[in-house]
Amino acid sequence: MKIVIVTAGLTQPSSTRLLADRLTDAVTRQLEADVRVIELRDLAVDIANNFVTGFPNGRLREAIEAVTEADGLIAVTPIFSGSYSGLFKSFFDVIENTALAGKPVLIAATGGTARHSLALEHALRPLFAYLRAVVVPTAVYAAAEDWGGASDTFTDGLGPRIARAAEELAGLLRHRGPRAETKEEVVPFEEQLAALRPLS
Fold first, then answer.
1. How confident is the model at residue 154 (pLDDT cuts 50, 70, 90)?
2. What is each CA distance from 50 to 56, 59, 94, in whole angstroms?
3. What residue spans of the chain are helical by DSSP H?
4. For the whole model, what pTM was predicted?
5. Distance between CA 126 and CA 18 in Å, rounded?
6. Domain spans of the chain?
7. Least packed by Cβ within 10 Å: which of 1, 48, 84, 152?
8. Boundaries of each NADPH-dependent FMN reductase-like domain copy (predicted)?
9. What are the pLDDT digits (tens) for 51-93?
C-alpha cells in the first residue's frame, strides 16, 4: 500500500506539514503503508517552469508519478484569501485530469482562524471531485487555536477529527486494495518529434 502526502506549506517548519504528519500517523496506525511526503515548496520553480514549457522536468515528473501511482493521497494546504494556496492548485493543474480517478483522498487545511474552515467544502472538495478522486467524508481543518490542545463541543477537537478522517481513508484503502502495477511504454519526446518531421 502506497500513500503520498502532498503538503503546500511555505515555511519550515509549518503548521501545514505538522497537520500532514499527524494525519499520516493516524492513518498508518490503521494500516501498513509505504509513505512518501511531497513538499510543494521545494517544487515551486519546477511547477512554474512546467506552465511555461509545457513539460515537467525530472523532479516534478517524479512527484507527479508518485501521486498518480499512489493507492491513496493526503492533501494539505494552507488557506489564503478563503481558498487553497496558488502553489497547491498549480501542482494539481499540471496533473492529467483523469490521473486521480477513483483514488481515495483525505483533504485537510490550516489557517489562522476557524472562519476559513468552509474552504475545504467550497474549494478543495470540488477540486478533487473534478479530478474524479474519492474524497473521504471528514475533511480536517486546523485553525491556530487548535494547536493549543483545547477543544469544545462545537468543534469536537482536532484529535478526534484527525482520527475519524484517518479511519475513513484507511477503510477506503482496505476496501480498494493495493493499486495494480501497470507498465506503460513511454516514447521519448525526441522520438515523437522525429516521427512528425517530413522525410527528405
1. very low
2. 5, 11, 8
3. 15-28, 44-53, 58-69, 86-93, 119, 125-130, 158-176, 189-196
4. 0.83
5. 24
6. 2-196
7. 152
8. 1-147
9. 999 999 999 999 999 999 999 999 999 999 889 999 999 999 9
CATH of span 2-196: 3.40.50.360
Length of the chain: 200
- What lies within 8 Å, CB to CB, of 37 at 6+ separation is 4, 5, 7, 17, 20, 24
Task: Specify the DSSP class assigned to residue 171.
Answer: H
Q: 70: which residues sit within 8 A by CB, 6+ positions away?
A: 2, 3, 4, 36, 103, 179
Assess contact for 88 and 8: CB atoms under 8 A: yes
Count of other CB atoms within 10 angstroms of residue 126: 11
